Amino acid sequence: MKSSTHSPLFVTKELFETRYKGADCVFVTGSVIRGEATAHSDLDLVVLYPRVERAYRESFFHKGWPVEAFIHDPETLRYFFNQVDKHLGRATLAEMIVDGHEIPAATVLTSEMKELASAALREGPPALAPDDLADRRYHISEILDDMREPRNRAELTASAALLYNELADFYFRTRRSWTASGKSVMKRMRRTDSVFAKKFSESFDEVFTSGQAARVIALAEEMLAPHGGLLFEGYKRDVPLEWRAKS
After folding, report:
1. What does the pLDDT look like over 197-237, one tens digit per residue?
2. pLDDT tens digits, residue range 167-179?
3. Which CATH superfamily is domain 8-123 in?
């Protein structure tokens, strides 16, 4: 819980001068910079060095602020953008850099990294491979079956909670958009299609508040229809041949 009287920019500058000596710059980003912070928000930082042995992240308290820091250099950022986040369909790190405020000041390197992050965001994630799309259809179909006739309210709530992120991810990825989960879903979905976001939100509100699943089931079926619909019959996945252990 934040109890600091120090501003986030002051704290970031002090960390740059003490904890992260030798860094080129620190990007301070997240809800604090966007003006959306709550009493429980942490201070999100991306620390940029000319060179690090390996990238890492760490969490700690400083001057009353909970700090979450991601330490990188240009090569590790390129790797994360192209080899990690891109294939997950997530752009959290790139967005942090694009939106970040440079402390103590912008540099040649920060400008290069902002352009690199912007290019990654513009490119978007790859299209889902056929097997990946089928896996998602199958998994969503299984959850919907559990919601059609749940044994009790607790099971329905658990299934709906699971479906929320699964269905949101399906929505974004089938549109070649960067995905989101949890509290970020609605913010990203409203930017993509505010009308659909309202429909999505209201459907899940009905499940969680009144235990009525018909509306969200219909929404899920509607979303899957253009991509082959629900999937059970004919679904098959082989495991790798080497997945066996000898006694």
Report:
1. 999 999 999 999 999 999 999 999 999 999 999 999 999 99
2. 999 999 999 999 9
3. Beta Polymerase, domain 2 (3.30.460.10)
Buried b (16+ CB within 10 A) or exposed e, 185-209: bbebbeeeeeeebeebeebbebbee
Cα 162 → chain centroid: 15
- The DSSP code sequence of 82-145 is IIIIHHHT--HHHHHHHHPEEES---HHHHHHHHHHHHHHHH-PPPPPHHHHHHHHHHHHHHHH
Domain with CATH 3.30.460.10 in the chain: 8-123
Q: Cis peptide before 104, with omega less than 30 degrees from 0?
A: yes
